[in-house]
Amino acid sequence: MKDYLVRGIVESKNCRVFACQTTNLLEEARAKHGLWPTASAALGRVMSATLMMGAMNKNNEKMTITINGGGPIGTILATTHSDGKIKAFVANPEVHYTYNDTGKLAVGVAVGKEGSLQVIKDMGLKEPFVGTVPLQSGEIGDDFSYYFMASEQIPSVVSVGVLVNDTNEILSSGGFIIQLLPNATDEDIQFIEERMKDFPPVSALIHEGKTPEDILKVIFEDVEILATQDLFFECDCSKDKMATALMTVGKDEIQAMIDEDHGCEMKCQFCNEKYQFNEDDLNEILKEID
Ligand SMILES: [Zn+2]
């Protein structure tokens, strides 16, 4: 089944809702980056949350989420233009921890919680919007939920999850977000709190074959789906862009690459694609700088 997200509204409970399935795109990211299971879980949760945040934007603004909690995984970074396409990486893909008591993937341990979650929204016109909040648990869902409350003043439930099999392949990935509208009542809040008690992990629901629409209907019988969007892991890197990046290292560095190494290799951090620059390419770049 393809990856997609849905956006909807529950008028009876004064909230808007989002749900997504990201199993395939996470599997693609896992293969490209060589992610170990807990790193897969961390990146999958971040990508699901980021894609759903993208669906909250009216225009296709560029959004970048950066999380750094001081844990062994290092920085996690995800970027989308709110068009269903995402690219993302973790600094250290070979990270794997599980909790002793439950055996579950210990995302909070891998990410750490001594740090921040930063959201940059670039509308391309004026100064970008930057919102930064301290991490709560490093488990990602809690951290996004806190971000919505602290930075955007929107009470939200954020549930994101990933299941990985014994050979490290992604079995399921996805999530949902519930956001209260300004006219929500205490009864609405109570209803949602009740529904979330003992609610099964979203990764288990997706693994059972439930669609994003199904998951929302398990929570709200009367959810109205307003839009759907296909989701992809897609990087926009190219040799030209890499050449532009190379220019910034300076002429001396490039000359040294020519003299000592007779070329260089550049790797895209978002997708691990490698680009080779031979002496001619590098001389061309030197000319461009002049
Ligand atoms: Zn790339």
Automatic annotation (TrEMBL):
KW Cytoplasm (keyword) present: yes
Protein family (similarity comment): Belongs to the HSP33 family.
UniProt keyword annotations, A-Z: Chaperone, Cytoplasm, Disulfide bond, Redox-active center, Zinc
Record's function text: Redox regulated molecular chaperone. Protects both thermally unfolding and oxidatively damaged proteins from irreversible aggregation. Plays an important role in the bacterial defense system toward oxidative stress.
GO molecular function annotation: protein folding chaperone; unfolded protein binding
Protein name: 33 kDa chaperonin
GO annotation, cellular component aspect: cytoplasm
Localization annotation: Cytoplasm
Disulphide connectivity of cysteines: C235-C237, C268-C271
InterPro entries linked to this entry: Heat_shock_Hsp33, Heat_shock_Hsp33_C, Heat_shock_Hsp33_N
Posttranslational modification: Under oxidizing conditions two disulfide bonds are formed involving the reactive cysteines. Under reducing conditions zinc is bound to the reactive cysteines and the protein is inactive.
Pfam families documented for this protein: HSP33
GO biological process: protein refolding
